[in-house]
Specification:
The chain is built from twelve helices and 14 strands. With about 290 residues, the chain is of the alpha+beta class. The protein folds into three domains: about 45 residues, Uridine Diphospho-n-acetylenolpyruvylglucosamine Reductase, domain 2, CATH 3.30.43; about 110 residues, Uridine Diphospho-n-acetylenolpyruvylglucosamine Reductase, domain 3, CATH 3.30.465; about 110 residues, CO dehydrogenase flavoprotein, C-terminal domain (Enolase-like, domain 1), CATH 3.30.390. The protein has a five-stranded antiparallel sheet with strand order 4-5-10-6-7. Strand 4 and strand 5 form a beta hairpin. Helix 11 packs antiparallel against helix 12. The longest helix is centred in the C-terminal third of the chain and has 21 residues. The termini are far apart. Bound molecules: flavin-adenine dinucleotide.
């Protein structure tokens, strides 16, 4: 299949990008790595009149420490994030998730900003961003605003990026010394989108969990916290019994994304197993 006809614009600066977005509004789509958008255009699931290619915009491709935050520019390629020693040292949950994200050719073109803007619930990074309480910087000709990860994803393939805006930066809190992380997913083949995901960030004092962030992905329209699991961990000594008990609490989350990969009961069971494994992985880091 070939895409419907479109016009291509290639701004070189953020200012020119903002002007193009304001001028074309809803009739335009941003082209980042093209790994999701181009197949959608080829299948004519989307037919933008104008494509605004942001591959040549200066200043959107970086990974840097900004105090206790790791700031990643939206146009940073997956491959660069995956290989970054800054990422590995400061936000280890991202590094764990990247072991599961796509294939080398896709990672060489695909971008972190494109991935998160696409809003696919079966992607790993939305789950990671919510688990870590990341902040999204959304920019336009009017300036920039920040959005918490829990508010950024509105529905499947729908985010809080509005007409005339673009995602410019993602800000991840640097891991504290007493934080432990776990990431588990199940997918049909290595590098495919996930059928279910569990991401865990535990703040520990000795064997006791001071606070827990436990997030599901791939089973509902948007990833989300699992409060019953978190409550089962907070203030508790986290050993194998407590992990089994906490993982049982995943059953309070109803999987609503059902397809040929499995029904609700299957996904529920999968989530329980993945959550137990992710918790064990986090605790084993200690
Ligand atoms: C074979 C294959 C396997 C894959 N496996 C996985 C996987 O296992 N896990 C996974 O997470 N992903 C996977 N992907 C998707 C991959 O991660 C894509 O790179 C990603 O989803 C989209 O990033 P992109 O830069 O290519 O964005 P594009 O395809 O260029 O854009 C995607 C969408 O985001 C919008 N957009 C892009 N950048 C911005 C921005 N800065 N601001 C606002 N809107 C923007 C576009 O307009 C479009 O609507 C796979 C893709 C392929 C082809």
């Amino acid at each position: 299949m070939k895409p419907a006809p479109f016009r291509l614009e290639r701004p070189n600066t953020v200012q020119a990008l903002c002007q193009a977005l304001r001028k074309h509004g809803e009739s335009a789509r941003i082209l980042a790595g093209g790994q999701s958008l181009v197949p959608m255009m080829n299948f004519r699931l989307v037919a933008p009149e104008v494509l605004i290619d942001i591959n040549h915009v200066d200043g959107l491709d970086y990974i840097r420490l900004d105090g206790d935050v790791l700031a990643v520019g939206a146009m940073t390629r997956h491959a660069a994030v995956k290989e970054s020693s800054l990422v590995k040292a400061n936000v280890p949950l991202i590094a764990k998730a990247y072991a599961h994200i796509a294939h080398v050719t896709v990672r060489n073109r695909g971008t972190i900003g494109g991935n998160l803007s696409h809003g696919d619930p079966s992607s790993e990074l939305p789950t990671v961003a919510i688990c870590l309480d990341a902040t999204f910087v959304v920019s336009s000709s009017e300036g920039s605003r920040t959005v918490a990860a829990t508010d950024f994803f509105k529905s499947m393939f729908e985010t809080d990026v509005r007409s005339g805006e673009f995602l410019s930066e993602i800000r991840f809190p640097v891991a504290a010394r007493n934080q432990r992380f776990g990431f588990e997913e199940f997918s049909p083949r290595h590098g495919d989108f996930a059928i279910a995901i569990a991401a865990v960030a535990l703040e520990m004092k000795g064997d006791t969990c001071v606070s827990a962030s436990v997030v599901h992905g791939g089973i509902r329209d948007i990833p989300g916290h699992m409060p019953a699991v978190e409550a089962a961990l907070q203030g508790k000594v986290v050993g194998s019994e407590q992990i089994t008990h906490a993982a049982e609490a995943t059953l309070s989350i109803e999987p609503t994304l059902q397809n040929y990969h499995g029904d609700a009961a299957y996904k529920s069971d999968l989530l329980r197993t993945l959550t137990a494994r992710a918790l064990s992985q986090a605790v084993a880091e200690g």
